[in-house]
Amino acid sequence: MNVAGIIVEYNPMHCGHLHLLRETRRLLGEDCAIVCVMSGDFVQRGDLALLRRSARARAAVESGADLVLELPLPWATASAEGFARGGVETLCATGVCTHLVFGSECGDVDALQRVACALEQEEFSDLLREELKAGDSFPAARQRALGKLLTPETAAVLESPNNILGIEYCRANLRCGEPLIPVTVIRTGAAHDAQKSESGIASASAIRTLLETGAREEALALMAPAMQKAYLAEEAAGRAPVFSKGLERAMLYRLRSMTREDFAALDEGKEGLSNRLYGLSRTASSLEELLAAAKTKRYAYARLRRMVLWAYLGLRPAEMPRHPLYLRPLAANAAGRTLLARMRKEAALPVITKSADFRRLGGEAEALFQREAAAADLYSLGYPELSAAGGDALWKESLVVL
Q: Is residue 110 part of a domain?
């Protein structure tokens, strides 16, 4: 039986995500099981998830996934390369996944594989170093370097965000020894971070913007049905929507209380970005003001957001493990529970369904979950109703069974 792995955020889940799930079974068989690796309470763009992890995981299973595993915090809030690496390594560690499925603008898995292989070559690294000397942004320099190694036409796939992420998935799979068969589906609906498309499918970013600007009914109508139900339940409980604006004072407090050494640890002392953020954190009166002032051609907005988020959560790159240390299921249906039974025998990492069992693991694995649990408590401070933000929530959370 085919078992497809998909790396997701579902922030929130929309009809484009449903299309990918349906296409996966069309391509790999109706009996194909689907395992999603999903970010927890914080996401790759350096922001808070709209809904807490358990609500999004339940919606994913109700929408067609069989099993949802958590992508641990260090990889969920990393660069595209780190995000992809953590997701692919998690899927590989299950011991049951056969395919790696993702959306892309080009829909050409062979082209994405060729680019992934090229990016791993030493010759490409040499070309990239030369291009970076011109002073352009990293993405522009990377595309020019790749164009010299392959062709400018092939390198043009790097102009589209889902192509880029797909290439990073392929690179991570290469580094793992290619245990998964890559499959890509042409992305439908609005482009990443764009508004609603002609098909009526909006990006997750557009839906979040609608909610932030008060267009609640329009936003709800664009969510997948199960996600809409989850949103309404979380909203009624005072836990949604969650936006970083609700934690702005707490984040600014954290930044202003940090020393130069603290900022240097965030960027591991590289490139002078830590000094820039340190100085701006003393004068900025909002996160947007700080990020706008810090952003340059060299320092991308998303990278700055991730650094601010890591500062708020008290995370330091040097203290994070290099690879995922456990498999934590968030939600499963009957087929997913069958996969879990196989994983307990075949997985390369421990499968933990009860939070209390992390104490039994000890060492780095327990320390990583402790950080995850502490971050979840900080996330809950962004709930609209503070009375819903009780502490130690993650230690009490169990597998959602459907």
A: no
